[in-house]
Amino acid sequence: MLSLKKKTDSAGPQTPAWHPDFRDRDSLPDTKVVRTAFFINGIAVVIALSLLINFGLNELQIRSLRSQVDKWSQQIERDQSMSNQAVAKFNKFKAEEKKLKEVGEFIESRPSLADLMANIGRTLPSNLAIDAFDLRVNTLTLRATVRGAPDKASGYASGYVKTLREAPEFADLFEKVSLTNLNRVADTGRLAIEVVVELTDPNQRGKKR
Asked: What is the rounded CA–CA span in Å between residue 37 and residue 43?
């Protein structure tokens, strides 16, 4: 028994037998519990699903945007006619406002008709009768008939023109007074005259001495 123990102790370390490995590992089947092809196919499926979901979400978003654009377009079409009507009314209002402004400026530029008529009546000689009174923006035209002897009628007419030029009532209003027409009326034998008065610029009224 002693000799058997010694033999065992002297046997030395045991080494596995060596032999060449002739296996073609690329051609061998995949014997893993979870094959590599499963992971590859799974990743491909995940990527495909992600792309499909992303495409679907983008398509839904595009449809939503198209729906909003259609609604906005319909609203614009509905509001367009109302907007055009509002613009037309506004333009009409501006045109009317311009007319009213022009009328207001015209009225402000003209002298007071009541005061003018009253002053002309006060300065009118008894031997003259006003036949026509024509007030424009810048001029006043008076047509009158002179009563009296023919040899004195022209003097009366000239005297009336002088009165209009020098009357203090018209000093600030009349710029120039001219006797533009003087003729004898065949039917009555009286003298008909026409006096044209150039009115002072409204901006200059009150500045004349």
From this structure: 10
